[in-house]
Structure formats: structure tokens, C-alpha cells
Amino acid sequence: MDFGGLILVVLGAAAAIANLTFVVVAFVQIVRDRSLAWQAQAIWLVTILMLPLGGTIAWFAVGHRTKEFERMLVR
To answer: Which are the contacts of 45, defined by CB distance < 8 A and separation ≥ 6?
Structure first.
């Protein structure tokens, strides 16, 4: 294996670990979020299972809204 191939393998492994970390963090946040109804939690969890990258990005972009952030948007 040449040096370029080794760099690609290391970058790929780092990306996979980062993706897995974000998925686990999103799962924990969804399960611990008491403001979400259980149906919404189930939909988010299934979405992340079916589309790990897209579902996680959607959770952090749209679903992960705290009450303080929502209040700040209303002002």
C-alpha cells in the first residue's frame, strides 16, 4: 500500500468514527428529550436508523431545538 492509499484509509476510518459518534449522540439526545412525544421520538430514531447521515444532520439542524432557542427565535 502506498502513502496515498494509507491516507485515504485513515481519513475513511476517521469519517466513519465521527459519523458513528454523531449518530450515538443524536440517539441519546432524542431518548432523553422529555419535550418530544414518544411518537416523535420513534420517528426520529427510525429516520436515523434508515438514513444515518441524513437523519443525523436533520436532527441537529431541525429537531434539536431547546426551549431557550425557540424563545430566542420568537423575540
So the answer is: 27, 30, 31
* Residues 6 or more apart in contact with residue 30 via CB below 8 angstroms: 36, 41, 44, 45, 48, 59, 63
Q: Show the cell assigned to 38.
A: 414518544
Flag whether the pTM goes above 0.70.
yes
Q: What is the pLDDT of residue 69?
A: 57
Closest listed residue to residue 55, CA positions, set 39, 42, 38, 68: 42
d(CA 43, CA 12): 29
Q: Measuring CA to CA, how many Å separate 25 from each of 5, 20, 69, 70?
A: 30, 9, 19, 21
